[in-house]
Amino acid sequence: MKKISALILCISMFMASLTALAADEVTVNYNGEKMVFDANPFIENDRTLVPMRAIFEAVGATVTWDPYTQTVIVLCESESGLKTIALQIGCDYAFVDGEKKTFDTPAQIVDDRTFVPLRFVMEELGCEVTWEPTTYTVDIINEPAE
């Protein structure tokens, strides 16, 4: 009986640790400042997804939404000119300046918010992205080269 009780206790502790791990919030820092979102970023397929408007506006991009095709269209001025990104919900590719580029976790709608794969979109906009797995922290650096 003691062995069964010990086993149940171990399983309960393991499940509690998994629940705590799943509940960890993802923190996103942009040029050293913590970003605040109207919906929480989350991880799916080992990729961080973030609300589209906040992340794109942080880099000074203009965002439009086509509800008929469920496509996010991003325009961003850079040193090399105007960059465009078109992401369609549920697709594993985007068009960046007219060129088709694939990624492994598509944009999606959750609770009326559009979420996009953070690393893909930020790197396409010329940012450096790092991930700290122990703290669930993403750091985005978008500083002009000196």
Throw out a few tags for this protein.
146 residues, alpha+beta, Copper Amine Oxidase, Chain A, domain 1, 5-stranded antiparallel beta sheet, 4-stranded mixed beta sheet, 3 helices, 13 strands, globular
Q: What does this 3D model show about the protein?
A:
It is a single chain. The chain has helices at 2-23, 52-58, 118-124, and strands spanning 27-30, 33-34, 42-44, 47-51, 62-66, 71-78, 81-88, 93-96, 99-102, 108-110, 113-117, 128-132, 137-141. The protein starts with a helix and ends in a 5-residue tail after the last strand. The chain has 3 helices and 13 strands, in the order αββββαβββββββαββ. The model is unreliable at 14-23 (pLDDT under 50). Strand 10 and strand 11 form a beta hairpin. The strands form 3 sheets. The chain has a 5-stranded antiparallel beta sheet, with helices on one face. Strands 2-1-13-12 form a 4-stranded mixed beta sheet, with helices on one face. The protein has one domain: 2-Layer Sandwich (Copper Amine Oxidase, Chain A, domain 1), CATH 3.30.457. It is α+β, with helices and mostly antiparallel strands and 146 residues long.
